[in-house]
């Protein structure tokens, strides 16, 4: 069956609202949650196209989806994507095809509805974006063998890659409460760090603040606890993808992470893009898995012929950085790295199948990060720890400033080929002299 | 101020509904969520006392809390504790004092309301208990220095305790979706394990299934992202405690945990008690922190005079185990270990202060596990890994059966001095030959 929503020559009749070519093509149709100025508590879900947002609650109210599955309609009135995520791939597909039909420039029956469609549009530039979904559990994987090898080389030059890496998708549980939407300022965390050459730690602002360039898989549907998802059905559980910045405080991480893994070094903030690109929109980017001849074959529960032949995603992603000084001088953000999701060692389907292989239940709104997406080249390393090789090889910005790690005022912007962006700006650490005085709380002993 | 809710000689006028002395004293008044047979979807929150449950929605409806803070009343109609958790310590305290007044056997004005109170009671034996609150983020600490030392001795005899242990409360993020209420069967997980002497893993049922005896702190209130909770106010964020079993598959854990910590070895199930004992009920159990003279002083953000003098909790907890055979023979559960929460290296306040020290936001319904609570004696080791010393020193059950790790049909029951219980029975692993056929899903390739 030909899926018209991938037709590369299809165009929309809708005039773009902005010159921003990243404001989403007809073939992308991403989902997000927005509000309008002065109505911050009135949130809606919408679809991005050509600099506009189609208000899905309005579209539902004005009859644009009346003939679709009855379960879809109430989901469009919920102010976040979770109700939509709880539906099935068939329902997601039906909605996507309807949205494509509404906006494609052809002579279908929907041509007569364009005035109604226009009533449901909001200029993207006027909208305030919120977290697109309530994040349930957040898991972060470590799926880039290049990233794992680089980090391992710094820590264990004699054994860069641990013996388990090529067999088991390494992952850990992350913090969901501190996931924020693109554009939210990120406060530099304080924490315990062990100063070089000392045996006792001090507490203070992190001096080695980093980003991590990742893609997040947004989970839809639910498997019962105890019931694994077989790899052949695993992609049915991926609604779409976001860009994800797993901000990391490397000095806090180095001190705390043994033996149970990263904790406060990561839990101060994680940023995701405001828009979720449906997996269906990435179908033309599905490519074969490439493994080295020396790599062991995946165990049967991670092996699926269709996944091996088309389970990797050819998605270019990049990091740009601007300092306060650069922005004062009107300099555009500086390209720091560019990598591609196809270089990951594990596919999205393998991550889902592995995650549930012990019976763990994934729920709608769960988020699976890929881990830092690094490629084989130095310019494709997805975090500063790797890019500056632990700070020993600083990058130089157009202003002549150098960076080993992030400075206050730095703005980090991720971009992806489909038009996703994910950005955050570092604000200074909290004044520690104020540590004992919380806003709205009188000082005093506990009850 | 004298808090009458701790008066050890106070008694309730209510006749106990059962002979079970663990069915909660007047001084305990724990909270839970229940339904009645045939009405599984009609859930209420309630308070346990003497084998009865006070239906809080009914109590609110019949006017027993009419004069309390207006924000309390709607919270009592919500079918889980989260709305109550979102309130303040002052509101929690007001409710507790009212509940005590309703049930204490004295001549107060509430004596005349006993017929109304009786209308709000349900026999505990008839109720079906549910998860008491929707768990947000679940964090698991590693706060027992005895546990950390024992495990470290097995893994690194030359350095049992890592250099960071006495400085930084070690913790990691856990999986919230697979947290289940006491009594829920626990399916033996399958996963990748590395057979002894081999270099490639196999996938199959865990052969080293274990429990971990823990206490969970139930978080109330919310701090804004970026705003740490000072240690002097940290206990205001602890609504109460549960018993927690952090089921662990040691063979899966050994293979997967480097370098990012435990993942699928833990995420197949975590059991918590159906009842949450308010921290206020544990006030008589608050004791001074005892540290060895050689232990470093906590960094200032973890140091508070009141916490040092009364921040530890003297709470006995224990593990009992019964095999299928024991139950067939009518044998009572066998006491395997008994330990005490006061032996933890870090206090609850220190765990909260540390968790938020990087600005991480804790939200109502978050759960903080202490980690396995082991004491200094062999009989106080809180998991089989330690108790049987990695299986080298099996325990013998009254039937003559031995245990290195858990067998199918084993039932593990935790108990605490205040009457909390937390139990789960191991059911056999899922048949792996059925792996590709999920209920309700036709086999086939992904779309």
TrEMBL record, chains A, B:
Its EC number is 3.7.1.2. Pfam families: FAA_hydrolase, FAA_hydrolase_N. Pathway: Amino-acid degradation; L-phenylalanine degradation; acetoacetate and fumarate from L-phenylalanine: step 6/6. Its cofactor is Mg(2+); Ca(2+). Substrate binds at residues 142, 156, 253, 257, 372. It is an enzyme of class 3 (hydrolase). GO terms for molecular function: fumarylacetoacetase activity; metal ion binding. The keyword Metal-binding applies. One of its GO terms (biological process) is homogentisate catabolic process. The active site is at 147 (proton acceptor). The keyword Iron does not apply. Residues 27-132 form the Fumarylacetoacetase N-terminal domain. Ca(2+) binds at residues 140, 212, 214, 246. Residues 139-417 form the Fumarylacetoacetase-like C-terminal domain. Keywords: Calcium, Hydrolase, Magnesium, Metal-binding, Phenylalanine catabolism, Tyrosine catabolism. Mg(2+) binds at residues 246, 266, 270. This is fumarylacetoacetase. It comes from Luteitalea pratensis. The lineage of its organism: Bacteria, Pseudomonadati, Acidobacteriota, Vicinamibacteria, Vicinamibacterales.
């Amino acid at each position: 069956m030909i899926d018209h929503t991938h037709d590369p020559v299809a165009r929309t009749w809708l005039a773009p609202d902005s010159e921003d070519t990243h404001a989403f093509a007809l073939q992308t149709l991403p989902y997000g949650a927005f509000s309008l100025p002065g109505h911050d508590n009135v949130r809606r879900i919408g679809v991005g196209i050509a600099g506009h947002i189609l208000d899905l609650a309005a579209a539902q109210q004005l009859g644009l989806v009346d003939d679709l599955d009855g379960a879809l309609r109430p989901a469009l009135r919920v102010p976040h994507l979770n109700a939509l995520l709880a539906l099935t791939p068939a329902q997601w597909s039906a909605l996507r095809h309807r949205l494509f039909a509404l906006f494609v420039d052809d002579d279908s029956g929907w041509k007569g509805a364009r005035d109604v469609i226009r009533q449901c549009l909001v200029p993207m530039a006027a909208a305030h974006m919120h977290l697109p979904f309530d994040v349930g559990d957040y898991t972060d994987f470590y799926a880039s063998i290049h990233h794992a090898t680089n980090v391992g080389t710094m820590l264990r030059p004699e054994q860069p890659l641990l013996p388990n890496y090529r067999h088991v998708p390494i992952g850990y549980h992350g913090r969901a409460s501190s996931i924020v939407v693109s554009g939210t300022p990120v406060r530099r965390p304080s924490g315990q760090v062990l100063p070089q050459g000392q045996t006792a730690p001090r507490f203070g602002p992190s001096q080695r603040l980093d980003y991590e360039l990742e893609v997040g898989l947004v989970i839809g549907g639910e498997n019962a606890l105890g019931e694994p998802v077989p790899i052949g059905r695993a992609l049915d559980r991926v609604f779409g993808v976001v860009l994800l910045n797993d901000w990391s405080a490397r000095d806090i991480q180095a001190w705390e992470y043994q033996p149970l893994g990263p904790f406060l070094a990561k839990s101060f903030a994680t940023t995701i893009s405001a828009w979720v690109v449906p997996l269906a929109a990435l179908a033309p980017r599905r490519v074969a898995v490439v493994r080295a001849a020396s790599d062991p074959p995946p165990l049967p529960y991670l092996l699926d012929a269709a996944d091996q032949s088309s389970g990797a995603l050819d998605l270019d992603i990049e990091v740009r950085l601007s300092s306060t000084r650069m922005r004062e001088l009107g300099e555009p953000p500086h390209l720091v790295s560019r990598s591609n999701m196809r270089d990951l060692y594990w596919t999205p389907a393998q991550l889902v199948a592995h995650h549930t292989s012990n019976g763990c239940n994934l729920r709608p709104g769960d988020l699976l990060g890929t881990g830092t997406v690094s490629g084989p080249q130095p310019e494709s390393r997805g975090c500063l720890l790797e890019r500056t090789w632990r700070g020993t090889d600083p990058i130089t910005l157009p202003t002549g400033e150098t960076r080993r790690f992030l400075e206050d005022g730095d703005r980090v912007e991720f971009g992806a080929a489909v038009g996703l962006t994910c950005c955050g700006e570092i604000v200074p650490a909290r004044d520690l002299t104020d540590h004992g005085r919380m806003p709205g709380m009188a000082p005093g002993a506990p009850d």
